[in-house]
């Protein structure tokens, strides 16, 4: 294990956060805490890196540190110019949100997006009681402990996921050696088993880490998973806070997400897996989906959707669902249809997905096993596999939480998130019913537990918020926003 | 109060889950010298991977970068053979590693067992490496 390589990983994520923070004027909502801002900035930096690397590939420029440094400076410059044209980011508020959010926030007044200029005033009636965001509680301490335990095992390589060996890590190393996405390698007919058609953000991050280090170091790549885990916990913590969960539930929820994720990550050997990216994406989408739709939320959803789409193939439908949900929320909340929110949320994901589709089609990377006819006849085998997966020991009974989003559709606060999560869940089953494989039970068993991991942390947050919502609503209904008119 | 208690118990359960998994992982890590598993259960640092690494380290010195290497595993079922190949590919990223018989290759690495009979046609022995045999194709 090389300390230099570990430092390079930390530096990479730090630089991505710094790069993303250049877009603070667009990405920061006054409702967001500092930790969550760090999450969004890092994801934005990762998306910017992915777009730069994609652009370099198109231009035929070999990846190298000097080239990446120049591109980073150019992006920071563009962001600075864009910031001058836009408004300054709002100061983070000191108390959590406890009202509003949900599907559209129509009851808050038509067309009342949370613009930044008067955002503080508009958000004021939405805030409730709770600890200041800077305070660390017992749940945070437990989360840090869980993170430390996971990190110790991850750095050893003992809980490295087989898929890191079979394709993610191999691709990362190949891209590092080739100085770009190695399409010749991906297009070999014997490369079918390494999912050559998958989006490339994960191996790109490995390759850039190796560029910073000067060599490809496995523990450094595993540390990347630890950072994603930390970002995931931070996003869940913010989701609980912006969802208006009481302080005890916030702390308990933070601890629950961290402890259960660490247990599953160790037990199911998940270090180096790309599923952390999607778990992070869905968790990071919780705060903007809990708030009434606003401009910062549109950009946040755009970054989160782009991050998901760049990470993994099932991230592409997740991106589409997140953007669609945000656009429909605007349409629901506002008297006139506006194109701008949909563009704000959809532009970045489109910038990620279209080049990926183009390159994969150009190099004939899509595989025949990617899709087939929808066959209901496999339902028995598929649901047998799901039933077995739900009892997987490494999940310790937490996996069924992934099936709860349809129930969360009934509550306004959680409806937007639940819609996106339910659609993603349905997509998983669509993929099972259309995949031409020999043994469906084995197929489901081999991936359902980790697909569930993409949903479980965020679903835990939504469930806890819904739970708190019911409790507090019963006691004088402090959660309902005073509108002075009857609600639908 | 009841809800707090319930939530506290769930958090406690997640903590117990982590303790169980951490203990299991630590125990297997301590006993990793005996981790003799099938390829689908191989872990970094386990003896089968170490043996494969020593074969491949020797092969890397003899095979030029960018070459195509077919990995042969006699007597293994196809699923296992594919996993051997995937591990070999991860451990030799500068080479193009494929399963034996998938496509013509410039080199063939045979795991444990030397190639014989018709499989030797068009191949020349290039070295007996730790745990494996290297062949060079006369006409790739």
Describe the structure.
The complex is a heterodimer of chains A (488) and B (140). Chain A has 488 residues and is mainly alpha-helical. Chain A contains 19 helices and no strands. Chain A has helices spanning 3-21, 24-27, 34-59, 65-85, 119-123, 138-156, 162-178, 183-187, 201-213, 218-242, 247-267, 275-290, 295-311, 315-333, 339-362, 379-390, 405-408, 412-434, 440-474. In chain A, helix 3 packs across helix 15 (339-362), helix 6 (138-156) packs antiparallel against helix 10 and helix 18 (412-434) packs antiparallel against helix 19. The radius of gyration of chain A is 22 Å and the shape is globular. Chain A starts with a helix and ends in a 14-residue tail after the last helix. With 140 residues, chain B is α/β, with parallel strands linked by helices. Chain B contains three helices and five strands. Chain B has helices spanning 2-30, 47-62, 78-91; strands at residues 68-72, 96-99, 107-111, 123-129, 132-137. The radius of gyration of chain B is 22 Å and the shape is elongated. The N and C termini of chain B lie far apart (74 Å).
């Amino acid at each position: 294990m090389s300390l230099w390589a570990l430092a390079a990983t930390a530096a990479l994520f730090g630089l991505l956060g710094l790069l993303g923070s250049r877009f603070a004027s667009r990405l920061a909502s006054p409702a967001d805490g500092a930790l969550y801002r760090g999450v969004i900035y890092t994801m934005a930096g990762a998306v910017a890196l992915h777009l730069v690397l994609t652009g370099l590939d198109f231009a035929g420029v070999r990846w190298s540190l000097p080239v990446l440094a120049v591109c980073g400076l150019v992006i920071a410059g563009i962001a600075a110019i864009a910031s001058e044209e836009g408004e300054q980011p709002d100061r983070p508020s000191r108390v959590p949100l406890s009202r509003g959010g949900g599907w559209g926030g129509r009851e808050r007044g038509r067309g009342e997006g949370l613009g930044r200029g008067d955002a503080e005033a508009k958000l004021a009636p939405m805030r409730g009681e709770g600890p200041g965001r800077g305070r660390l509680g017992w749940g945070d301490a437990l989360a840090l402990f869980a993170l430390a335990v996971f990190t110790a095992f991850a750095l050893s390589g003992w809980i490295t996921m087989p898929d890191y060996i079979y394709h993610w890590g191999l691709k990362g190393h190949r891209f590092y050696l080739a100085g770009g996405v190695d399409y010749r390698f991906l297009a070999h007919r014997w490369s079918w088993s390494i999912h050559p058609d998958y989006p490339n953000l994960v191996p790109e991050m490995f390759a850039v880490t190796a560029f910073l280090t000067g060599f490809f170091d496995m523990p450094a790549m595993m540390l990347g998973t630890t950072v994603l885990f930390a970002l995931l916990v931070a996003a869940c913590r913010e989701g609980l806070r912006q969802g208006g969960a009481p302080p005890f539930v916030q702390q308990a929820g933070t601890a629950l997400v961290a402890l259960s994720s660490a247990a599953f990550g160790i037990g199911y050997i998940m270090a180096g897996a790309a599923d952390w990216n999607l778990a992070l994406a869905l968790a990071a989408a919780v705060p903007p989906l809990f708030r009434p739709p606003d401009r910062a939320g549109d950009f946040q959803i755009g970054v989160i959707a782009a991050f998901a789409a760049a990470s993994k193939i099932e991230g592409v439908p997740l991106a589409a669902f997140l953007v669609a949900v945000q656009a429909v929320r605007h349409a629901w909340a506002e008297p006139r249809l506006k194109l701008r929110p949909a563009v704000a949320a959809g532009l970045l994901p489109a910038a990620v997905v279209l080049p990926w589709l183009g390159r994969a089609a150009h190099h004939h990377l899509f595989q025949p096993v990617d899709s087939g006819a929808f066959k209901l006849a496999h339902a028995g085998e598929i649901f047998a596999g799901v039933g077995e997966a739900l009892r997987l020991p490494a999940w310790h009974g937490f996996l069924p939480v992934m099936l709860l989003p349809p129930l969360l559709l009934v509550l306004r606060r959680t409806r937007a998130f639940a819609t996106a999560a339910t659609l993603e869940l349905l997509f998983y089953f669509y993929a099972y019913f259309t995949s031409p494989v020999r043994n469906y039970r084995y197929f489901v068993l081999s991936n359902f537990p980790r697909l569930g991991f993409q949903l479980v942390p965020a679903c835990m947050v939504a469930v806890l918020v819904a739970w708190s919502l019911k409790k507090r609503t019963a006691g004088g209904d402090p959660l309902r926003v005073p509108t002075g008119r009857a609600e639908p | 109060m009841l809800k707090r208690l319930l939530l506290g118990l769930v958090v406690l359960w997640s903590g117990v889950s982590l303790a169980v998994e951490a203990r299991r992982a630590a125990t297997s890590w301590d006993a990793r010298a005996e981790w003799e598993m099938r390829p689908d259960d191989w872990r970094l640092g386990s003896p089968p991977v170490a043996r494969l690494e020593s074969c491949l380290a020797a092969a890397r010195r003899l095979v030029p970068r960018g070459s195509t290497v077919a990995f042969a595993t006699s007597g293994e079922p196809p699923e296992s053979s594919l996993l051997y190949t995937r591990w070999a590919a991860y451990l030799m990223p500068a080479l193009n590693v494929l399963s034996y018989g998938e496509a013509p290759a410039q080199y063939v690495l045979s795991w444990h067992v030397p190639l014989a009979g018709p499989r030797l046609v068009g191949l020349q022995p290039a070295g007996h490496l730790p745990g494996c045999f290297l062949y060079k194709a006369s006409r790739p």
